[in-house]
Design brief:
By secondary structure, this protein is of the alpha/beta class. It has helices at 37-54, 81-88, 98-111, 131-134, 140-144, 154-167, 217-225, 231-240, 243-248, 254-259, 263-287, 297-302, 304-311, 328-336; strands at residues 2-9, 13-20, 26-33, 59-67, 77-78, 117-121, 173-179, 183-189, 192-196, 292-296, 321-323. 42% of the residues lie in helices and 20% in strands. The model has no long low-confidence stretch (mean pLDDT 95). Bound molecules: adenosine-5'-diphosphate. Adenosine-5'-diphosphate is lined by residues 180-182, 209, 253-255, 258, 297-299, 302-303.
Length: 337
Amino acid sequence: MKVIAVFNAGSSSLKFSVFRHDNLELLHKGDVDVPDSKDGHKKALNEALTWISSQKELELSVAGHRVVHGKDRAKPVKITPEVLKELQSLIPLAPLHQPHNLSIIEELAKLHPNLPQIACFDTAFHRTQPKLAEMFALPRHFYDDGVKRYGYHGISYEYIASEIPKYAKVHEKVVVAHLGNGASLCAMKDLKSVATSMGFSTLDGLMMGTRTGVLDAGVILYLQQHLKMSVEAVSDLFYHKSGLLGVSGISNDMRTLEESKKPEAREAIDLFCRMAAQQLGGLIAILGGLDALVFTGGIGEHSERVRQGIIDYFAWISPPVYVIPTNEELVIARACR
Ligand code: ADP
């Protein structure tokens, strides 16, 4: 039986799924911890391949990968040496994710040179956005040089967009809130992205588990010029030590914060909801109304408290609210087929 393998390489884990090629039935799901990245990913890949070859009747026909950055690409692409080179040139745009995504592709190409490999991009879904949504108020040559808003979580948004008609009859103007460890909002007009809260990098927009979300650029100047923090220290602060973890001083995990009695935990959750509501309000203005608000991601799917904390800001329009579990792997498997 022909199968599709889907790989999602994060900074500390490799998730893999195996689907039947003919009907996209999910046959197996695995999650391998990868404490130290490069060798860890090789080991994780081997574990995934070993599972497939141990199932006598399965034949791997194509592999699909989540790749964070596709720059201006709006569609998945089949990997060739030229494409791989192009995607490697995007590493400076997504230094924390892109190298992991690509190392799996390279390793698999070494092991199975004839296996077709497909890359699906987190940025691709947002390429329907108008130019204004992508622009920063910087001198215009920066835009031409690629310093613009790309947006992320697009694979998840693509899945949700395909599900929304099953839930919401009216779906001309929808905002989807993908709230996980990473978190963002996407405004969709007729199920196509017209604006999103993440921008040039995955730091922008909502407060996240360990990331700041939107931040006055003057703070960056202050940290470097006045406090003399190094670029590496600032990067570590913004990506790994801020967000729910930094504000609470307790944890980046929403469940832990919900269980805590400490006022700092409560304040972190309140700030998370307030920042989400403030940016959601902006997206409603861009859409000119709201037919449906959809929650997804670990927090969006499971935290009644956070959902309610955000919705409370919108009592004056009381939008229809839906909770739709995301399925990024299925989007990648569809692209492979
Ligand atoms: P990732 O972005 O890494 O894929 P997830 O989408 O799995 O992350 O989301 C992880 C977040 O979801 C964590 O903050 C976790 O605490 C939160 N979460 C998961 N289940 C619950 C729950 N039952 N109640 C509150 N938060 C939850």
